[in-house]
Automatic annotation (TrEMBL), chain A:
<keyword id="KW-0592">Phosphate transport</keyword>
<dbReference type="GO" id="GO:0016887">
    <property type="term" value="F:ATP hydrolysis activity"/>
</dbReference>
<dbReference type="InterPro" id="IPR003439">
    <property type="entry name" value="ABC_transporter-like_ATP-bd"/>
</dbReference>
<protein>
    <submittedName>
        <fullName>Phosphate ABC transporter ATP-binding protein, PhoT family (TC 3.A.1.7.1)</fullName>
    </submittedName>
</protein>
<feature type="domain" description="ABC transporter">
    <location>
        <begin position="18"/>
        <end position="260"/>
    </location>
</feature>
<keyword id="KW-0067">ATP-binding</keyword>
<dbReference type="InterPro" id="IPR027417">
    <property type="entry name" value="P-loop_NTPase"/>
</dbReference>
<keyword id="KW-0547">Nucleotide-binding</keyword>
<keyword id="KW-0813">Transport</keyword>
TrEMBL record, chain B:
<dbReference type="InterPro" id="IPR035906">
    <property type="entry name" value="MetI-like_sf"/>
</dbReference>
<dbReference type="GO" id="GO:0006817">
    <property type="term" value="P:phosphate ion transport"/>
</dbReference>
<feature type="transmembrane region" description="Helical">
    <location>
        <begin position="43"/>
        <end position="65"/>
    </location>
</feature>
<comment type="similarity">
    <text>Belongs to the binding-protein-dependent transport system permease family. CysTW subfamily.</text>
</comment>
<dbReference type="Pfam" id="PF00528">
    <property type="entry name" value="BPD_transp_1"/>
</dbReference>
<dbReference type="GO" id="GO:0005315">
    <property type="term" value="F:phosphate transmembrane transporter activity"/>
</dbReference>
<keyword id="KW-1133">Transmembrane helix</keyword>
<protein>
    <recommendedName>
        <fullName>Phosphate transport system permease protein</fullName>
    </recommendedName>
</protein>
<feature type="transmembrane region" description="Helical">
    <location>
        <begin position="342"/>
        <end position="366"/>
    </location>
</feature>
Amino acid sequence: MNDMRILDRDVSANTTKITARGVQVYYGENHALKDVDVDILAGTVTAFIGPSGCGKSTFLRCLNRMNDTVASARVLGEIKLDGEDIYDKRVDPVVLRARIGMVFQKPNPFPKSIYENVAYGPRIHGLTRSRSELDEVVETALKKAALWNEVKDRLQSPGTGLSGGQQQRLCIARAIATSPEVLLMDEPCSALDPIATAQVEELIDELRAHFSVVIVTHSMQQAARVSQRTAFFHLGHLVEYGETGQIFTNPRDPRTESYITGRIG
Amino acid sequence: MSVGLLSLIVLGLAVLGYLLGRQRALSAVKGDPRALHSLPSYYGASVALFTAVPALLVMVVWLFLQPTILETRTAALIPQENIAASGGNISLVMADVRRIAEGLDAVAARAGLDEAGIQAMRADLSDMRSRLAEVGVALGANVDPAVFEAAKTYRSLGNSLHSAMALVVLLAAALGFAFALWRISPQLRARNLVEQFIQVLLIASSLIAVATTFGIIASLVVESWHFFRLYPAGDFFFSTTWNPQFRGGSSLGLWPLVWGTLYVSFIALLVAAPIGLMAAIYLSEYAGPKMRATAKPLLEILAGIPSIVYGLFALVTVGPLLRDYFAQPLGLGDSSSSVMTAGVVMGIMLIPYVSSLSDDIINAVPQAMRDGSFGLGATQSETVKRVVLPAALPGIVGAVLLAASRAIGETMIVVMGAGAAAKLSLNPFEAMTTVTVKIVSQLTGDTEFASPETLVAFALGLTLFCFTLALNVLALVIVRKYREQYE
């Protein structure tokens, strides 16, 4: 964890992108998330850390209303994207998810060609008017995801034929292609080897220039390496939220200190 | 000793062997099962297997062979003139022999005769025909002395063979019992022995299925070959008229029947595939758990209705309905039996096949695929159309082809819905018929099994078999080619 000091901790902008106040989540009888308040800043990588089952993935899935697809889930409280309540009746979750993209824990490319995988979002949202425009979007997304050089000669071969790390970068490209404002990543490196992880982490840092990124991770080193702000969750509570450097070097809450020094979790 | 009693004795011996074997294994190590190679029950099981399996196998083989031996031995006793008298057909004489032999037992029981008494009976001295008639064995003519003697031999030989079988089976059981019990020692790998036996059992079971398939194909091929010796293959494959005449001079062209089969199946699939698929999509993607728990069993009830009931539905309801509201107003015919009727009803029958299989296949598409699509802001129907269905496609094609195989083989609905007239026509409101229906109609009735009119059934059966086989192979190829697209 020595490298955290050498990392640039600049937060490029201080405008708030997402505001969450008093968020509660129930899965049936189970109270999974208790009274969470978080401000996610624009142009920042925010990491959620905490032991398994602490509610960090649950909270992430609240941000783009993916919990709507879970029948037993109930979300209370207020989450605002650019000052607009995303749980308002007038908000279409489908449109919301186009603005807040998501990358999942396990790479899940569609059983289609690499090109079709990336073109999926632009196609369903009608973002392009011509084939050449679509080609351009696909190329840009693949370049941003640092995958273009590896796949430019085989865009028509199936996305499932790529290696695990490439698949995950393909999923990131797929999410980028819809040009979202926020990118949510649910443990994007847990199924990857160290080299692929390094590539994805580098990518995350570059993506910060275009969107706010929220990343859930089990690896504290990863949180320290890629994020500017860190939130620590424990047993459904948000224990501490602040600058990554401060959380890792000078935590205010004793629970955070126990976790990052490896005594709990 | 009857076969049932004999098997009971063998099984009793096996149970005894189990207990003794277990006991012997335990006593060999002074009651400490840890010193044994296998659990004590495996030693017991090995003795039980050695007792029962060879003995029962011997019994089964013996029961298979005994009738053949009995027939050939007895048939040799019958003089040529008796065979000639019954039209040169030995099997008719042998049928008499068997019936007389059975009757003799009853006669003996009634008159209180012992074995010697039966041997002393003579057909030329007493009126055997009426005595046999008294015990319920009716014979067409007076009993010929030679046939009667053959029957006596048949009976006594049968009895002695039967006793010999009991002896051999018991001997085999006892030998197996003794051998297995003798070789029990703590080092014996009884567990592996039982494992091997289970493996053999499993192999044998799968062989039965394979062997049956080959047997059926072989019988179809042989009978079809007989047919093609009597009827030119060119006419069968290339003629377009189907007009069997039991007086001879029939034209047995395949195509009207194949056309009917394909036409009816096509309409059935046109009904079943979209409806079944859409029902499956609703059930797996949209329906809540409660709806699913009620609707799925209800839909599967459709699969449990016998096809004859669907046939009635076609005959009484759908046929007249289609005639009155579609065929007559459109001027396409006035028959209530039509390809359309049979096809629509058959399609309804096939809906649960398509929906149930497709539902399972759609459910097998990983949730990660759907999450990925939802996460990009796709709606439910976009997700289904662009991600779930393409991923499930090979399985869905398999389900539809399976339904097609069933449609091709269906008989009752066609008889009652489409009629029995073999015709080559494009009009779906005309009566037509299929291969299966004609197989049934060629084989029902009192016709001998030597004319092309009856033997054609086997050639038709073989054709049908080739069609369904080709469909299954096609399904397999499609599934192989596109399998494991996701993962």
